[in-house]
Amino acid sequence: MEDLRLDSLEGVGPVTTRKLSDAGIHNVMDLIVRGPVEIAEITGMEKDTAEKIVNKARQHLVEGGLIAKDFVSASEIYKHRQSIGKITTGTNCLDTLFDGGIETQALTEVYGEFGCGKTQFAHTLSVMVQKPKTEGGLDGGVLYIDTENTFRPERIVSIAQAHEMDPEKVLDRIIVARAYNSAHQTLILEEAGQIIEENNVKLIVADSAVGLFRSEYLGRGTLSVRQQKLNHFVHLLARIAETYNCAAIATNQVMASPDVFFGDPTRPIGGNVVAHTSTYRIYFKKSGKKRIARMVDSPHHPEEEVIFALGEAGVIDPEDAEKKTKKTTKKASIKKTKESVDDTAETLEVDATESTIDIESDDLEPIEE
């Protein structure tokens, strides 16, 4: 967009524009996302100069109606929140938990042990966000940051087919970025502004957000550095979601807290850094073949639990899973009955064949008249 170009700001000439572009700042929104402190560090300019540029960028976006004013009434905020986009999860149970779906301009954290459905949830939303707004989607693309090598296009295809969508078109609208270390993971997010604009990205997925930081910074001696870098990443993710009006999902790993003797010892990784940054915090846990989702932290949602399941369509309602199980059981029963009937018919045929007596003409005695 022309009005988001760096040289559209007063006092930003060709030299400053080139310096910012070389540092990965490509438009006015990137200035808001990165902030004056980081811009001063990566460009080498004075902090006061960076603050002036960022303030001009903020004012420019306010005048364009892209971000809120500094002082607004609560009624204006309420009206604005009525127009916030939501992405349906495709299930009644999770939509009830999220009050309609995953919100844009917010960071939603989903944590739980392995196999609880976090990645399946992310895959499902990557498909659902592409639906039209009339069907609960946002008709937008997806930026999927894969840190654990768990993204599977085959899963996207099966979910798209279950929702009667074209798999090829769905795959084309998902941009996958494979992160190999924590620095690379942060760099992907820092360079994401241009990708978000060009592909109309409405959902950013970080799966998982903390995994690489956890594996690289080991021991208490590195805890402080890890938390600082992790803090930078999650705040950057939250600012991008708010500035670019898209939804952000961060999956998180867990650990067992040794000081808990009663109740669930499961605790999310990242501590207060991740907890305070996340707008919504959801806990997934296993319950046999089903899963439980609990709203742990939210500015306005009640703390409640819902039951969901996993299937071909990704995350599904438990009733749909039971129907499918009954249908499969019925098909298996019919098949078994058919095989049993065929076996019985074959047995009767064999018995009839064995009981047949072959009579030769020579063995017949003449009948006396």
Looking at this protein, list some descriptive labels.
369 residues, DNA polymerase, domain 1, 46% helix, globular, alpha/beta, 13 strands, two-stranded antiparallel ribbon
Descriptive account of the structure:
The strands form three sheets. This protein has a nine-stranded mixed β-sheet, sandwiched between helices. A hairpin with a 2-residue loop joins β12 (305-311) and β13. The relative contact order is 0.11. Helix content is 46%, strand content 18%. α2 (28-43) packs antiparallel against α3 (47-63), α2 runs antiparallel to α12 (223-243) and α6 packs across α7 (153-162). The chain folds into two domains: 7-63, 5' to 3' exonuclease, C-terminal subdomain (DNA polymerase, domain 1, Orthogonal Bundle), CATH 1.10.150; 84-321, Rossmann fold, CATH 3.40.50. The chain is of the alpha/beta class and 369 residues long. The protein is globular and about 90 Å long. It is built from 14 helices and 13 strands.
